[in-house]
Design the sequence.
């Protein structure tokens, strides 16, 4: 069972089951726990090969046991997402933990990933269970519908789920409208039906001050 203690610590209660978590994110535990390092951020050959090609480093560990384990990372805000058979796409740096029964892998993000310097792949989590994702400040969940597509600054993007189509756009973004941007600017446009998670702080990108 996933539960938050405050907004920056995740507590996971286990009764012999397991959880996948970002390597090094465990801050405390009680009871009896066993830790195992997993290869890469995804499962299977595709996950390992694609991450090796792009040079991404996302090390995940499996924690199994009886008791409670607490996780945190750089005092980031933690947000819980419940999956009901659907798939969540999340930036690798924003992934904290997931139920061990959920399938993790890699998904192609096209030029958006390249614009951020994060490679061309992002982490996917699929199945039934809970996922904990991190954000710099409390995440905001925005609804995308057929009538209301959404455009997001790539530095603020955290994750998305649902039946969404992504397109990558270059040109003017929010800051360049006011002469505050630097270098080439990028946007992500979402169309369809689903949810997009954004953070109220922008990570640095190689695309300039977007």
Sequence:
């Amino acid at each position: 069972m996933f539960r938050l203690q405050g907004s920056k610590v995740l507590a996971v209660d286990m009764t012999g089951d397991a959880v996948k978590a970002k390597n090094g994110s465990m801050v405390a535990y009680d009871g009896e726990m066993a830790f195992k390092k997993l290869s890469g951020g995804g499962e299977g050959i595709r996950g390992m090969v694609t991450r090796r090609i792009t040079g991404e480093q996302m090390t995940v560990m499996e924690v199994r046991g009886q008791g409670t384990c607490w996780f945190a990372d750089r005092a980031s805000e933690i947000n819980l997402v419940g999956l009901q058979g659907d798939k969540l796409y999340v930036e690798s740096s924003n992934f904290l933990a997931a139920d061990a029964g959920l399938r993790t892998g890699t998904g192609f993000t096209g030029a958006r990933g390249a614009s951020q310097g994060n490679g061309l792949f992002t982490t996917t989590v699929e199945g039934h269970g809970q996922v904990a994702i991190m954000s710099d400040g409390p995440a905001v969940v925005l609804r995308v519908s057929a009538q209301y597509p959404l455009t997001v600054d790539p530095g603020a993007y955290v994750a998305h789920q649902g039946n969404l189509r992504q397109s990558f756009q270059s040109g003017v973004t929010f800051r360049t409208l006011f002469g505050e941007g630097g270098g080439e600017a990028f946007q992500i446009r979402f169309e369809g039906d689903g949810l997009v998670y954004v953070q109220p702080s922008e990570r640095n990108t190689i695309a300039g001050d977007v």
Residues 44-54 form the longest helix (11 residues). Confidence is low (pLDDT under 50) at residues 44-55, 111-115, 205-210. The helical segments are 44-54, 111-116. The first strand starts at residue 2 and ends at 4.
